[in-house]
Amino acid sequence: YNLETEKDPVVIVISTTGTGDPPDSARKFVRKIRDTTLPPDHFAHLQYGLLGLGDSEYTFFCNGGKTVDRRLQELGAQHFYNTGLADDCVGLELVVDPWIDGLWLALKEAFLLQKGKEGMSSNIDAVPSSLAADPHIMHELNLSSEVQNLKLEDGEVRNSGVLTQKLVDINLVASTEDAEPSLVHSVPPVSQSALNIPALPPEYIEVQFQDTHGENPHLSSLVSEGTTFEVPVTKAVQLTREDAIKTALLLELDIADTVFDYQPGDAFCVICPNNVNEVEELLHILGLSEKGDCFVCVKVKQGTKKKGATRPQHIPERGTLKFILTWCLEIRAVPKKAFLRALAECTSDAGEKRRLQELCSRQGASDYTRFIRESNVCLLDLLHAFPSCKPSLNLLIEHLPKLQARSYSVSSSNFYQPGKLWFVFSIVEFPACPTRAVSRKGVCTGWLAELVAPLLHPSKNTLDAKGGSPLTEKISIFARPNNTFHLPADPSVPFMMVGPGTGISPFIGFLQHRQKLRKEHTDWEFGETWLFFGCRHQDRDYLFKQLRCFLENGTLTHLKVCFSRDSSTAEVAPPKYVQDVIRLYAKEVARILLKEGGYFYVCGDKKHMADGVSDAVVDIISVEMEVDKLEAMKILAMLREAKRYLQDVWS
């Protein structure tokens, strides 16, 4: 299709990435429509509906969708259906499901109006456009479209919009003992409801097993975002004490023999594998343990009903089964409802099948949120919980998403220590719980921790026979430059940094860079620098005690620290969190941000810290400028727009 001439309704679904940017696949399109030479009636012929996907944990919520929506409106396009903005923070399906339900009616109306304009209202299927606005007719159309689109092609109940009561009693026997619902048990009303469940997605992948001869693709072929570099890990330091709640590690990479370059504040991505034991366990459950080293050829199934079916781009044409499960598929992904629907068809036990149908149904939406989404359940958890579920390999390839590279903030300056790259991370822990039988570590942080264990605890077995130094492991990385989270271009401009926990990471790079500049340019004027750092315990997880060195040599003007779990004997308890400390320096914050044109950087956890910091800054602006809170929020929004209040946050 061509949007320049398209007369039929267009449906756009767009996510948001980075700091409110459109996804990579939409950048070319967004660049095109942002062309300021386009006339205001450029898309006057176009009618569209837009669904934006975002996460309100981040500042620029659904900005990808909002940008496209706003620009299409400016260029004369018309909505045939209201824009939907779905929030991953509370569950995309809360907006997505009703938006899709309403889409069919809106499309019907749009086509009816179109036919009316084209003089085709005599068509048997068409409702005269004069009646299109009649609420009774619209209600009937709505009902028929809902029934039509919620038809369930199920082995036991065909051509029905709902699963009937016949299946219900099977599960009641198991669930009456449990007053509380769980991943595997439901209670009324869900257990007694007829269910609206999604249509079964058509299968479209075919997997052919081949011999064990050949080589797997190079990891660089899995990355479309740019050049990949294989670099050695030359140093690993545990920054926290053994009894700290979280374990934080600093890793040093040697990039001297590469053209990899970065600025303090940039991020980069690590290509990581799934856990070896989890891959083996999955192969065992699938009954494919013997086939792990066999090469598989992945093709589109002939005669599939899926329109425009293609082999997923993240799956190589040829690779071993183990390679695909290790490097290509996110086996830890939280299963989407369509996947649960497909898994239900592979489940032989009637009670287990019913529960999987409940979890993907509209009636079981809150159970899905509670026991799947919020519990961070993955495919392995489901296969343990529902042992009669035996999915095929092609189903996994169809439904599991691409194993994404993990992004980390750079914690060093290439100017200060050329050829070296530091980064800091906490090892993510998922403790065992009712929905997860075993505890797990984060996919990438767990792998990295295991990889560098010999560097952290050298022993005779891990030492290189020649030099006596630990054997060097290599990891594959690629650049992910940050366009905004950088030091001010003018060194005389003051700035404040807020980075509790591992949020301090980019600021170590900032300070290294500033120290080197001060040493090399003694005649330059440098603005004052503030750092607000916080952690749980001063003696367990104060990550960079050498911050004092930056303070002593003048690189850092002010260092303010707080410890949230340390007890105090002082009459007035010291502040626990960085947002509390910032309030103590309200006048300085206001002076730097509002009078001296300074910068304010925040890095770390979004929900529990960054929001608290921005609330504190709003209150400071309100008090110091004697304006109401709404006006203060507008001023902060202007500072964000001017790229002087900058965040590098994660949820």
Reconstruct the topology from this structure.
Blueprint: E1 10-14, H1 27-33, E2 47-54, H2 63-74, E3 78-79, E4 84-87, H3 93-117, H4 135-149, H5 168-175, E5 205-209, E6 228-238, E7 248-254, E8 267-271, H6 276-286, E9 295-300, E10 318-320, H7 321-328, H8 337-344, H9 350-359, H10 365-373, H11 379-385, H12 393-399, E11 406-409, E12 420-426, E13 429-430, E14 440-441, H13 443-451, H14 453-456, E15 474-480, E16 495-498, H15 505-520, E17 529-535, H16 538-541, H17 547-552, E18 558-563, H18 578-584, H19 586-595, E19 599-605, H20 606-625, H21 629-641, E20 645-650
Parallel strand pairs: 1-2, 2-3, 2-4, 16-17, 16-19, 17-18, 19-20
Antiparallel strand pairs: 5-9, 6-7, 6-15, 7-12, 8-11, 8-15, 9-10, 13-14
- Structural class based on helices, strands and sheet pairing: alpha/beta
Mean pLDDT: 87
Question: Helical content, roughly?
Answer: 25-40%
The name of the CATH superfamily of the largest domain reads: Nucleotide-binding domain of ferredoxin-NADP reductase (FNR) module
Annotation, overall tally of beta strands:
20
Unreliably modeled segments: 121-177
Strand order within the widest beta sheet:
11-8-15-6-7-12
Distance N terminus to C terminus? 38 Å
CATH topology of the largest domain: Rossmann fold
The fraction of residues assigned to DSSP E strands is 15-25%
Shape call: globular
Describe the biggest sheet?
A: 6 strands, antiparallel
The CATH architecture of the largest domain would be 3-Layer(aba) Sandwich
Specify the CATH class of the largest domain. Answer: Alpha Beta
Radius of gyration: 28 Å
Number of domains: 4
Task: Report the total helices.
Answer: 21
